[in-house]
Amino acid sequence: MASEQNLLTRVAYQYYILGQTQQEIAETLNLGRSTISRLLTRARQEGIISIKIAGADTELLALEAQLKERFGLRNVDLISTTTDMSEQDKETALAHESARYLKQIIRPNDHVGIAWGSILAKMVGQLDHPKTTNAIFVPLVGGPSAANAEYHVNTIVYDLARQFGGTSVYINAAAVQESRYLRDGIMHARYFQELANAWQHLDIAFVGVGGPLAKATNSHWRDLLTEADIMLLKEQKAIGDCCCTFFDQHGKLLAPSLRQRTIAIALSQLQKVPISVAVARSQNKVPSLKALLSMAIVNTLITDEETARALF
Amino acid sequence: MASEQNLLTRVAYQYYILGQTQQEIAETLNLGRSTISRLLTRARQEGIISIKIAGADTELLALEAQLKERFGLRNVDLISTTTDMSEQDKETALAHESARYLKQIIRPNDHVGIAWGSILAKMVGQLDHPKTTNAIFVPLVGGPSAANAEYHVNTIVYDLARQFGGTSVYINAAAVQESRYLRDGIMHARYFQELANAWQHLDIAFVGVGGPLAKATNSHWRDLLTEADIMLLKEQKAIGDCCCTFFDQHGKLLAPSLRQRTIAIALSQLQKVPISVAVARSQNKVPSLKALLSMAIVNTLITDEETARALF
DNA sequence: CTCTCGCCTGCACATTTGTGCAGGCGTTAG
DNA sequence: CTAACGCCTGCACAAATGTGCAGGCGAGAG
After folding, report:
1. Which of A102, A106, B2, B37 is most buried when burial is the number of CB atoms within 10 A of its CB?
2. What does the alpha-carbon distance between residue B26 and residue B36 come to, in Å, rounded to a whole number?
3. Gap from B263 CA to C12 C1', in Å?
């Protein structure tokens, strides 16, 4: 009943199981309260105390913690996907979680930037009771090609703003222009300044991640790229993009000539946003997502379990 | 990831597994710290969190808590006995634990009262490194019959005092006298006053419990009783004694005529001692021990697992 | 649409827990 | 036996946690 180990378990029992206060334990054992505190610390260190969380998908939570650690993220939010879900279902689930997360973190009068992305587009309408806030929603990238007009990024920010009782700013230019002069002209135009200004004062940014070029067929904006752009990107081994900025597996930004024709927030600017959230899933986005995370452009990640596992 | 249950497990995980502070959790979830505190309370209540103490004889500790609750005791200390131990071994183990416990609770200059009892007698010499203190050890009952002189209670207090670097007071009378006049005379004698005075200022008292009369053969003092005493006690259904005071299963004190011839601390006085410890074990002492505990004479119990279980 | 009711939250304060520092006791080497 | 070393403890302060109270928000009735 005396020896070391035994004392530890006794103290641990009284504290954790009986719920006694350290002071009470100290009195029954005729020891100083500090001593009890130290004994408990030892007991925890020596693993005498094991705490289990019932009914929880602990693995998922552990995975979140690991990812957070691995990429130095502020926060990671994972959803569990079951094998019987279609890709469609998984995307919807992720969009729903993204919307919920936005609701969770948004504060009154926040400036919220939204980039292009199939999942971000699906966020709209996922919430039963969106918080009413006076947030300002702004696009982070230019619009799609004329062929995809109905998926215009303006639509997303407009709908989100309406749901959250806020306002939205529109973007009146396609994501990729034909020349850097055209792009510079637009970005320096008076009507563009509101947007440019908003980009500098973002509180929250939600971005997607683009996968490899080969899969570009279903993209809503990549048809704006020229043959030459694509050639160049392939040559430089692009593995994906974020906000229309391409990079390789090492996180190196590619094709300056293309970047100079792109109307979108710069990644360096995105990096300064207090809460910058990447939302993405699927096997083929793993390499680009991994690169993006390594670049420390975003500080928050929302994805699903299978994608998360592939990130290590 | 959102709903109630899920939030609870998440918070519990971050707090208990990851060891984050409530403040940190509140920040990642964008909630108030108080809310996290409340969520954790709920999680504990709903049993989402299960804490196990590794390698511990948890049952023993649980038993202690139950006994404490059941009899309103200040403290309970149990030792585990294995079936391969002889009765002798078990007694020694209990004596050892009693000695250890005394060492644990004793403070400098304490007045420590010791009653008769086979286990109390064995306490002597059980400690490797007794604390040095200036405690005063006093007997709580008179000595044994002449036939058992070598087990005199004075020997115990003397040895204990020596081990703890303190002093001892002796008692110069047998536990039971032949008449109340003789007893009163002794107890009012000048030389007895030091003892009587000590009884009023006890900080700690260790007492044993006597079993039923039928088993009295191995007692060191019950041969002082007369035939008439024994007849009377049996008639009144005595189940045991403490400090030479007999009681029945309801805790009723018996045989006033005998009590008036007894030289021992009164149970009512024992009740006032801040830390009063009963040390006893074995099946045949269960009824008397149970009665004693119900009387709330002592506030601390040291026994073994099997005896403890039988007390319910 | 308006009002009421009740739950939930944040705030501020009380309690509980954690920790650096200084002093005491025991142990060991000489 | 003495002295030096180191572990352990209590103290006092810092950090973290628990909780009553008041205000806000949404659900539901009228």
Report:
1. A102
2. 6
3. 61
